[in-house]
Write a structure and sequence with these properties.
Elements (H helix, E strand, L loop, with lengths): L18 H16 L3 H26 L8 H23 L10 H5 L5 H29 L8 H13 L4 H22 L5 H18 L4 H17 L2 H7 L11 H34 L7
Helix pairs in contact: 1-11, 2-3, 2-5, 2-9, 3-8, 5-9, 6-9, 7-8, 7-11, 9-11
Length: 295
């Protein structure tokens, strides 16, 4: 069986890479990601934050006004399918996403990078994702897109953001664990891909599943909660008249709740879900204790 190395990949086959080959690809890619120059890594991370935000805009728009008009599960399914745009852009266009980069732990566990290199990568990418997300929040708010449909998009954004700010600490962590297990599985499946179509199909169902199930993604929340805060803080009186509510109807929607009650515990959960439940498990199976015959 041909094996994956830095310089040799099954380029003559059309079959998907097998799981043991996927593990080796994940390790090689992880090393490359961890050793990117600061400027390159940061800019790619800004792009990823913007891409995930665009998926969030798509999802928020499509599900606006659906409550009471469609079954709950159908609404969540539509939200997940449309949100998949974000990770499709990340994996096909090329960008650095904090949650997906939890798979770099496979390279760390095999001694190919140091803990310092891993943490350097994580903080740069996390910061870049935040910048890209907040920049998108500002642009979307200034565009007035959330005012469309007589304010129904903005009302949906407020409801989503407010809900996310009301989880208990344990809820936020566990929802984050479940989310990034699925996100990293989506990235893991992409390592089997040989074409753009393969990558897109690999991403759609795991990402749709995490959104439909209501799991929590720290980078998505860098857009979804701040856009709600922006609307609550700066929306004109005409908007509140259109939706029949006031800013006082969203007391949980604050920067403190965003950063402390949501982003911090969700990030911890995301790290565990991606690094331990996916990266370390597959490292143990295919790199530390190979279960496939070598030859």
């Amino acid at each position: 069986m041909n094996r994956v190395t830095d310089s040799s990949i099954h380029i003559n086959s059309i079959d998907a890479f097998l799981p043991d080959e996927m593990a080796q690809r994940a390790e090689v890619i992880g090393v490359k990601k961890a050793k990117l120059a600061f400027g390159t890594m940061f800019l790619l991370a800004v792009l990823a934050g913007a891409f995930i935000a665009l998926g969030s805009v798509f999802s928020t728009t499509v599900t606006a006004g659906a409550a009471g008009n469609l079954p709950f599960g159908v609404t969540k399914l539509l939200g997940g399918l449309t949100f998949s745009l974000g990770l499709i852009l990340v994996v096909v266009a090329g960008a650095e996403l904090f949650t997906g980069n939890n798979l770099i732990v496979m390279a760390l566990a095999n001694g190919k990078i140091t803990i310092r290199e891993l943490l350097r990568c994580w903080w740069i990418v996390f910061a870049g994702n935040f910048v890209g997300s907040i920049a998108t929040v500002a642009i979307v708010y200034l565009s007035g897109q959330w005012m469309q449909g007589s304010g129904v998009i903005g009302q949906n954004a407020l409801a989503i953001a407010s809900t996310k700010c009301q989880f208990t600490f344990l809820q936020a962590i566990t929802l984050g664990v479940l989310c990034n297990a699925l996100v990293c599985l989506a990235i893991w499946l992409c390592y089997s891909a040989r074409s753009t179509t393969d990558k897109i199909l690999s991403v759609i169902l795991p990402i749709t599943a995490f959104v439909a199930a209501g799991f929590e993604h720290c980078v998505a929340n860098m857009y979804l909660i701040p856009i709600g805060i922006f609307i609550k803080t700066f929306a004109p009186a005409r908007f509140w008249e259109m939706i029949g509510k006031s800013s006082g109807d969203y007391p949980a929607l604050t920067w403190d709740n965003f950063l402390i009650a949501n982003l911090f515990p969700v990030t911890l959960g995301n790290i565990f879900g991606g690094s331990v439940m996916v990266a370390l498990v597959y490292w143990t199976i295919y790199l530390r204790n190979p279960l496939v015959e070598k030859g």
